[in-house]
Specification:
Elements: H1 4-10, H2 21-48, E1 63-67, E2 101-105, H3 115-121, E3 126-131, H4 133-147, E4 153-157, E5 164-168, E6 173-179, E7 184-186, E8 195-202, H5 204-207, E9 215-218, E10 228-232, E11 235-240, H6 252-269, E12 275-279, H7 312-330, E13 335-338, H8 341-345, H9 379-399
This protein binds 2-acetamido-2-deoxy-beta-D-glucopyranose (NAG) (4 copies).
Domain Trichome birefringence-like C-terminal: 111-388
Transmembrane segments: 21-39
Subcellular location: Golgi apparatus membrane
C-alpha cells in the first residue's frame, strides 16, 4: 500500500515554523503578551467549572481519569488499521501505563463503546469524519474498536490515501473519512507552503459528499495555526503569521471562526439534515519547546485537575468553537458537541512522543509528536463519547 505520503503528513504535526530570527523574536514577544492577556481572561473561566467530586449532576465531559486494569479492547496485533506513527506499541514505547486508565465523568459512568450495539444502531446508515489527521487518528480508533465484531473493508481511497471510504458488509454501514483540514477552500492540496485560504468558500472535497451521509463528525485543528493568507471576495484581506508580507495580521481565530460560520451556514441552508457532531479542539502537550524546536512529551501519568495550564492558543480556539456552536444551534441544525478538550488536556501521557517511528534512537533526540494519540490510547474515549451522543440523539428523535 503506498503509505509514504500519508505517513509524511502524519509526521508533520502541522504548524509551519516562521522565517528568520528577527521574526521569531517579534513573535516571541507577541506570544508573551498574548499569554499574559489570555491568562487574565481565562483564569476566571478555568475556575468557573465546579470540578468537585461531590457534584452529582452528570456531565460526560467533566470528570477524571481513574486507574483501570482491564486495558484496551484492541492491541497493535489485533487491529490492522493503526497508522505506523501512532502504533506506539509496535514502535517500542516502553512504558504502557497509559493504557490502563478509564474516563470517569462526575455523577455518572461512560460506557465503553459496545461494538455490536454501535453496528446495530448504525445498520444501513453512513457516518463520515471530516477534517485533518486527528480525525484520521480517531477514525482508526473507531475501526479498531469495531473490528472485534466486524472488520471494515476499504472500498475507496483518493490518490494520496487521505480520503477513504470503508464498508461493513454484514451491517451495510458506510464509514467515510474526508481530508479537509481547513473545512474551507485552500491551496493545501497544491502546496503546504504559501497557503491561501478562501474564507468565503467551502472545501468541495466534503461539500460534494455531504448529502451521502446520515451522520457527520467534523473539526478544525492545528492547520489554522499555520502561516496563511486570507482571501475574501477575491481580495486578500489579511493573514495569519505572515510577517514581512505587509499584510494585516488577523489571527488564527479569525479564519477558524469564519470557517465554522460558513460550515454551519451551508448546513442550515441545505435541505439535507444529517446529525452533525462538532468535535472540539484537541490540545497538544509539547513541553520545553514546540514541535519543530525540540518540544517533548515524556510524561507517563495523566494530569490531575489543576496540575496543567491550558495553552493560550488552545484556549482561544476552543472558546470560539463554543461560541460558534451556540450560533449553529440557533440555526435549527441537529448539532451536537463532542467536547473532548478537557479530558484530552489531562492526558499528556497519551501521545507517541519519540515513538512515532520504529524504535527511535533516543540519544539523537528525534522530533516528537505530542499532538496525535497512540492507538490504543485516550482517543478511544472520544469514540465512547461519540457512541453516547448518537444514542442520545436517537432517543431524542424517538421522543418527538
Ligand atoms: C505489538 O507490540 C509488541 C511490543 O509491545 C511487539 O512485540 C509486537 O510484535 C507488536 N505486534 C505487531 C503485530 O507488530
Ligand atoms: C436495512 O435495509 C434492508 C434492505 O433495504 C432492510 O431489509 C432492513 O430492514 C434494513 N434494516 C434496518 C435496521 O433499517
Ligand atoms: C444499504 O444501506 C443503504 C442506505 O445507506 C440502502 O440504500 C441500501 O438499500 C442498503 N442495502 C442493503 C443491501 O441493505
Ligand atoms: C465584493 O466585491 C464587489 C466588487 O469587487 C463589490 O461590489 C461587493 O460589494 C463585494 N462584496 C462583499 C460582500 O464585500
Amino acid at each position: 500500500m503506498p503509505k509514504g505520503k500519508e505517513v509524511k503528513l502524519d509526521q508533520d504535526p502541522s504548524v509551519a515554523p516562521g522565517g528568520g530570527l528577527c521574526q521569531r523574536l517579534v513573535l516571541l514577544l507577541g506570544a508573551a503578551l498574548l499569554l499574559a492577556f489570555v491568562y487574565q481572561i481565562t483564569l476566571p473561566f478555568m475556575t468557573w467549572h465546579d470540578f468537585s467530586d461531590q457534584k452529582e449532576e452528570c456531565d460526560l465531559f467533566y470528570g477524571k481519569w481513574v486507574k483501570d486494569t482491564s486495558g484496551p479492547f484492541y492491541t497493535n496485533s489485533s487491529c490492522k488499521f493503526i497508522s505506523t506513527p501512532q502504533d506506539c506499541l509496535t514502535n517500542g514505547r516502553p512504558n504502557t501505563d497509559y493504557l490502563y486508565w478509564r474516563w470517569k465523568p462526575y455523577g455518572c459512568e461512560l460506557s465503553p463503546l459496545d461494538a455490536r450495539k454501535f453496528l446495530n444502531y448504525m445498520r444501513n446508515k453512513s457516518l463520515v469524519f471530516i477534517g485533518d489527521s486527528i480525525l484520521r487518528n480517531q477514525m482508526e480508533s473507531l475501526l479498531c474498536l469495531l473490528s472485534e465484531v466486524e472488520e471494515a473493508v476499504l472500498v475507496y481511497h483518493d490518490k494520496s490515501f487521505q480520503s477513504k471510504t470503508w464498508h461493513l458488509p454484514s451491517y451495510n454501514i458506510t464509514l467515510g473519512l474526508i481530508w479537509a483540514p481547513f473545512l474551507i477552500k485552500s491551496t493545501e492540496a497544491i502546496s503546504k507552503v504559501d497557503l491561501q485560504l478562501y474564507l468565503d468558500a467551502l472545501d468541495d472535497t466534503w461539500t460534494s459528499q455531504y448529502k451521502k451521509y446520515d451522520y457527520i463528525l467534523l473539526s478544525g485543528g492545528q492547520w489554522f495555526l499555520k502561516e496563511t493568507i486570507f482571501w475574501e471576495n477575491n481580495t486578500i484581506v489579511g493573514c495569519h503569521y505572515c510577517q514581512g508580507k505587509n499584510l494585516k495580521e488577523l489571527g488564527m481565530d479569525y479564519s477558524y471562526r469564519k470557517a465554522l460560520q460558513l460550515v454551519f451556514q451551508f448546513m442550515s441552508t441545505s435541505d439535507h439534515k444529517p446529525v452533525v457532531v462538532l468535535r472540539t479542539w484537541t490540545p497538544s502537550h509539547f513541553e520545553h519547546g514546540e514541535w519543530y524546536n525540540g518540544g517533548i512529551c515524556h510524561r507517563t501519568m495523566p494530569f490531575k485537575e489543576g496540575q496543567y495550564n491550558a495553552d493560550p492558543v488552545d484556549a482561544i480556539m476552543r472558546d470560539l468553537e463554543l461560541e460558534e456552536f451556540q450560533e449553529g444551534l440557533k440555526n435549527g441544525l441537529r448539532l451536537r458537541l463532542l467536547d473532548e478538550y478537557h479530558l484530552s488536556m489531562l492526558r499528556p501521557d497519551g501521545h507517541p512522543g519519540p515513538f512515532r517511528t520504529f524504535h527511535p534512537d533516543l540519544s539523537k533526540k528525534p522530533q516528537e509528536d505530542c499532538l496525535h494519540w497512540c492507538l490504543p490510547g485516550p482517543i478511544d474515549t472520544w469514540n465512547d463519547l461519540l457512541m453516547e451522543l448518537l444514542v442520545e440523539e436517537e432517543a431524542l428523535r424517538a421522543a418527538f
